[in-house]
Amino acid sequence: MNEQEPDHIQLIQFTSEGHPISRDVQFDGSEFKSIVNSSRDSYGSGGVSEVACSGISKSETDERIDYQLEGCENKKVVELLVIWK
Q: How many whole angstroms from its chain centre is CA 81?
């Protein structure tokens, strides 16, 4: 993402039972918003949660690449995506 252009992506993760959990990541040009929808996961919390974050980071090791949201309201790092090499 260009740091100044608004954009969005949707990531879908499947539970071990095959239920989808979606994460929408929206960028308005200055802030990221992560919206997790687990309403179709009958074994999970089944809700929708939202958190705003100030930045995104990428870290790489020999084994994987991690993308994370940082500077979030809840003081946590939100893991978006792990790509195994």
A: 7
6 token code pair:
């608004």
Within 8 A by CB and 6+ apart from 25, the residues are 8, 9, 10, 11, 32, 33, 34, 35, 69, 80
Structural domain harbouring 14: 7-84
Number of domains making up the chain = 1
Q: Is residue 1 a part of any domain in this protein?
A: no
pLDDT given at position 3: 60
Please check the confidence at residue 49 and state whether its pLDDT lies above 60: yes
Greatest mean pLDDT among 17-21, 43-47, 58-62 lies in 58-62
